[in-house]
Design a protein that fits this description.
The protein is mostly helical. The protein is built from twelve helices and no strands. About 55% of the residues lie in helices and about 0% in strands. Bound molecules: heme C (4 copies).
Length: about 190
């Protein structure tokens, strides 16, 4: 009985910790790597194009504006585009391409593990290789993906109250999936 309990406790620890292990285990590859397949209906769909036109793709460029520089000055920061205090929410921290702003991997997880895997081996294999499991995620956890940046913070002078439904609608790219992929999913692939 004791032994069984130990196993259960151990399992709970392993399962409980695995998401953060995942974050450290994999490297960021940058949005250009996703673009190859995610910008045409001949492949995965046009998610890249939706993202590119949205607010997140220009989050880094925003730090180069006068508005950003003025705000940064109040915090004693000379160049916001080089300051960790601003880059932490305006880029994918750890990405080799900070200039891509808040890119795919900010939300979907560092891609080095699932990049090659997810097209060929399917969703479960992708999640096992570090892809964030949005399909099986509670609403609350989905919101938490956003509120790690959309929150009040001493450095976030432009904070606006975050409402998930309203905000998500503005960046929603789930409708960009190609007809071909949808058809294959129907067949249970
Ligand atoms: C070699 C082509 C290819 C590349 C490169 C690629 N993808 Fe995909 N991706 C696909 C295809 C095809 C699907 C559709 C599979 C499915 O959902 O049935 C897909 C599906 C997805 C899904 C949906 C998973 C689901 O089923 O809910 C996400 C999220 C995703 N890709 C993210 C990314 C990200 C982020 C990158 C870059 C780090 C990337 N992909 C790079 C081909 C690719
Ligand atoms: C890594 C940090 C980060 C994450 C994670 C993030 N965002 Fe953002 N988001 C930003 C930044 C920074 C901006 C401002 C971009 C700019 O204007 O330069 C922004 C802007 C937006 C805007 C435009 C707001 C406006 O006033 O027009 C929407 C909508 C939005 N985000 C939705 C979301 C949603 C929904 C999620 C979660 C699924 C999310 N964001 C996750 C950092 C993030
Ligand atoms: C905690 C995360 C966070 C930090 C830290 C942060 N920002 Fe932001 N910033 C955001 C989000 C989220 C938005 C979009 C707000 C919205 O529209 O809801 C934003 C928007 C902006 C905007 C655009 C305002 C507009 O709509 O024109 C500027 C400029 C900006 N931030 C500059 C900075 C600077 C400079 C720093 C560093 C001193 C910084 N931010 C630090 C999250 C952050
Ligand atoms: C701000 C966070 C955020 C960013 C940035 C982001 N995504 Fe997503 N993405 C999501 C969320 C959340 C979902 C799940 C939507 C749902 O549950 O309906 C999603 C869904 C998807 C899907 C599945 C669509 C389907 O068939 O249901 C794909 C594919 C995808 N994203 C690819 C990408 C790619 C490629 C990029 C970059 C070019 C990207 N995403 C950038 C948050 C993000």
């Amino acid at each position: 009985m004791m032994r069984l309990m130990k196993v259960v406790v151990l399992l709970a620890i392993v399962v409980g910790l695995s998401p953060s292990y995942g974050a450290e285990e994999y490297d960021f590859v940058g949005a250009k790597k996703c673009k190859i397949c995610h910008s045409t209906d001949k492949k995965a769909g046009t998610h890249f194009k939706v993202w590119e036109k949205g607010p997140h793709a220009k989050a880094f460029e925003t730090l180069l504006t006068d508005k950003a520089k003025e705000a940064a000055k109040k915090h004693g920061i000379e160049d916001p585009s080089k300051a960790e205090a601003c880059l932490s929410c305006h880029t994918t921290v750890g990405s080799p391409k900070p200039e891509e702003g808040v890119s795919c991997e900010s939300c979907h997880g560092a891609g080095s593990g699932y990049l090659k895997v997810h097209e060929k081996e399917g969703y479960e294999a992708a999640v096992a290789a570090g892809m964030v499991d949005f399909r099986n995620m509670e609403q609350e956890a989905k919101e938490a993906t956003c509120t790690k940046c959309h929150k009040e913070d001493p450095m976030n002078d432009f904070y606006k109250p975050f409402n998930f439904e309203e905000y998500f609608k503005k960046i929603d790219h789930s409708g960009a999936t190609s007809p071909k992929v949808l058809e294959e999913r129907e067949k249970g692939k």
